[in-house]
Design the sequence.
């Protein structure tokens, strides 16, 4: 039947069909979605729900109440000094640690003179030998005993900005 139409009418019909397809593609995003029936997962008994972790007693958080988090006067609790540590901690402060694979280095600063030292295991400083470098501390030994410099402890408190 289309073959019987003149060529001009066939072109007009093809052009009209192309316009309908183009209009449908342009309007597609704004067409309303078909409503699908809601699918709910199968419900199981309440016993299958995960159990909540038990919280520790409120007394565990007493230090938080005594030292408010956003108070400018907040200070860490006083730590008991280890024997031999006080003299060393009064003179030196552990500023940082570098641990990369088996390589371990400690960055220590002289509190009084501002001299900075980089120490490795086995290095000596004023008669103290670095026994081991841990994740957050340096353990030193001497004939007087063993001392530990920890990050953020000992020496002068950090300067306020």
Sequence:
């Amino acid at each position: 039947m289309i073959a019987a139409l003149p060529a001009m009418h066939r072109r007009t019909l093809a052009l009209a069909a192309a316009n309908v397809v183009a209009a449908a593609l342009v309007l597609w995003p704004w067409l309303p979605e078909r409503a699908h029936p809601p699918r709910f997962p199968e419900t199981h008994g309440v016993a299958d729900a995960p159990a909540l972790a038990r919280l520790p007693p409120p007394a565990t958080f007493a230090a938080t109440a005594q030292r408010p988090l956003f108070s400018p006067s907040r200070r860490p609790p006083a730590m008991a000094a280890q024997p031999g540590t006080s003299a060393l901690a009064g003179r030196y402060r552990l500023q940082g640690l570098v641990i990369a694979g088996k390589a371990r280095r400690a960055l220590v600063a002289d509190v009084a003179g501002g001299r900075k030292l980089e120490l490795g295991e086995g290095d000596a400083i004023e008669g103290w030998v670095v026994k081991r470098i841990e994740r957050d501390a340096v353990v030193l030994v001497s004939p007087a005993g063993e001392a530990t410099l920890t990050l953020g402890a000992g020496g002068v408190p950090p300067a306020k900005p």
